[in-house]
Specification:
Length: about 230
């Protein structure tokens, strides 16, 4: 269903992105932001799934500025590599890789002519939150268990678009106290929690929780239908 294209970021950097096209003309678009494991099989499957719902889906390679062609699994060694790459990207001078997400948003607008939403997982959830606050051209954002987004200084940001956030109640990296504080700081955001662990959406991980993943997806699709069409 999908193939890779090359995006041109504002600073001229050429960034690969996986694009999944719906069978009928796209009604809108969804930018899919990876975990710390690259645009791997799972992220491509997520993009394909959004395409099957009628959206043009695009997943930019968020590690490309520090290392090309990253596609990791979920073993402990992969986790270590992914964390190192994430740290390297986070250390880039601003706006860093956010301009690659902006390039994906701009491409989506041009390619489908409709509204654009964004969804991301783990580190991608944090980037989705930042995108909702800092980037242009979005109409909705759905971060999943975004590490860091519930603490300072990230929670001090203000979203420019509607946000639906999903968190895991048994997440050892994101405390429920911080999620509660995020809800207070952002009363207009829809915030849901699930009896699951971090990574519950990924059916390639041991943390996958089928019921939570399905419910979060159902809610996200309804949210995107409201705000994207």
């Amino acid at each position: 269903m999908g193939s890779f294209i090359t995006l041109a970021a504002a600073d001229g950097t050429q960034v690969p992105a996986y694009v999944a096209q719906p069978f009928a003309p796209a009604k809108a678009a969804v930018v899919v932001i990876q975990e710390i494991f690259g645009v791997n099989t799972h992220i491509r499957e997520v993009a394909d799934a959004y395409a099957s719902e009628g959206y043009l889906a695009i997943a930019p390679a968020m590690f490309h500025r520090v290392q090309a062609n990253v596609e990791l699994g979920y073993a402990e060694a992969d986790m270590g590599l992914g964390m190192g790459l994430k740290t390297a990207v986070e250390a880039l001078p601003a706006p860093g890789a956010l301009q690659d997400i902006q390039a994906a948003i701009d491409h989506a607008h041009t390619a489908c002519g409709g509204k654009v939403g964004i969804v991301g997982y783990c580190w991608g959830g944090l980037l989705t939150w930042r995108s909702a606050c800092l980037l242009n051209g979005l109409s909705a954002a759905a971060p999943y268990y975004g590490g860091g987004m519930t603490g300072e200084p990230e929670s001090a940001r203000q979203a420019k678009v509607p946000v639906m956030a999903h968190f895991a109640e048994e997440d050892k990296w994101i405390s429920m106290d911080s999620v509660s504080a995020f809800k207070v700081a952002h009363p207009n955001a829809q915030v849901f929690t699930y009896a699951a662990h971090h990574g519950f959406n990924c059916n390639h991980r041991g943390a996958w929780e089928a019921h939570a993943a399905a419910l979060a997806k159902e809610r996200t699709l309804a949210f995107f239908k409201t705000h994207l069409g």
